[in-house]
Amino acid sequence: xxxxxxxxxxxxxxxxxxxxxxxxxxxxxxxxxxxxxxxxxxxxxxxxxxxxxxxxxxxxxxxxxxxxxxxxxxxxxxxxxxxxxxxxxxxxxxxxxxxxxxxxxxxxxxxxxxxxxxxxxxxxxxxxxxxxxxxxxxxxxxxxxxxxxxxxxxxxxxxxxxxxxxxxxxxxxxxxxxxxxxxxxxxxxxxxxxxxxxxxxxxxxxxxxxxxxxxxxxxxxxxxxxxxxxxxxxxxxxxxxxxxxxxxxxxxxxxxxxxxxxxxxxxxxxxxxxxxxxxxxxxxxxxxxxxxxxxxxxxxxxxxxxxxxxxxxxxxxxxxxxxxxxxxxxxxxxxxxxxxxxxxxxxxxxxxxxxxxxxxxxxxxxxxxxxxxxxxxxxxxxxxxxxxxxxxxxxxxxxxxxxxxxxxxxxxxxxxxxxxxxxxxxxxxxxxxxxxxxxxxxxxxxxxxxxxxxxxxxxxxxxxxxxxxxxxxxxxxxxxxxxxxxxxxxxxxxxxxxxxxxxxxxxxxxxxxxxxxxxxxxxxxxxxxxxxxxxxxxxxxxxxxxxxxxxxxxxxxxxxxxxxxxxxxxxxx
Length: 573
Hints:
mainly beta; Immunoglobulin-like; eleven-stranded parallel β-sheet; ten-stranded parallel β-sheet; 5 helices; 6% helix
């Protein structure tokens, strides 16, 4: 019996239509998304000249000043709401989206319709056919691949009286029909499966966070396992946002919300005044067009959970943050923050967690400034950071950035590490089509960049600044990157081992020769043109990494399968 566990990063990567709009219900039910409706969701004010020479005012310009013109032609004046006609369209809409909070779940490369609202990322095998390139043709005929499991509870949060229903809509298998797949559920993760079938109902008798194990098997004996999370809270602590209207009625409460219902703005104001542990739940399919930045969250122990398809849109608020957190122990799950022209989410507290969110066409997506006593930030799994006008993630505190997709952020770094971000772990992420994937701009002593897929960056894939110290780059796949060198180590002699560098334009590293543990193999992605960056069964990167003491195996036993971890973001069966 062969099993696989798939990172939620794949789900976010496959959902390329999410770049321009929140996930609509038709995507969650497996239907196609209309390309014109996706394009209509673009806010003109969120677009910018992405040539690299026209920087956002007030943001630090890239010190190298490299222009990320990725098509080979002058892109000045090209509207980012439309494809770059200088090259073939790369990103395509995917009909299936993972929607489990903490699950190692992934969306499948189902029926695809072109997403005309996304610019050409111009990966290297399109722009440089003379170079050796990763296999992007798909799985070889006759090869069996594990299912791609998509699972969630509906609703995602409730009380002890809530009947939670499982949804596996969007689960797929490349070789088998969904009807032939076998779904098994282990409610308490005791090793015994308690129910069989795609749709189940369940109640939870006590308060808490429940991780339920789902096993999906295909007819060839391949299994994928996923964790599906339900939050069970006290009824008095559950605050439900019931309207998309951004109103601010004085004294609004859940029991007496006033005009249209309880808005997100009113819910935050109410929670700030109450104190104690509270959960704000945004009902599904609400588009909240902000009239000004939301009030800062000042109460500790607040969790903000969004139902599918809900969006906070900041296009009309100018240079204001959409959401600011000035308290400790904040969690946000499943929220889409779009077109925020200052910062989408700024966190100024300790012990924050961001999961399954989408940050779309924001100026700065996630900013965590340095601060005394701040020691913990978890980003992921399952977030999508796309088309930021500046950086996607900046952290000045130690962070764990795990299981995310960071793509098409063409004006700056995907992730910036500042001085106080010592010991940060960046693992099992997919970086595609950014200016650079990671910039270690401060010392960030002891930070690790491991087990990622870094594909199609237009500048250095990773920049390690001159003040960086003891940085580790291992078990990563670097493909289709454009600069004269893939890694700029700033003369700091980072530990660069057990990576795969294939089909890149330039040399491996400004540091000169790198040691023989690094590979130059075609990674044999399952289907990179379809955004499936898993490894084919015959990939030479399977069992080719080194054990870093990191669990890349999800809920399965052990930290990895086989004799050693795989190189890349996804551990193969």
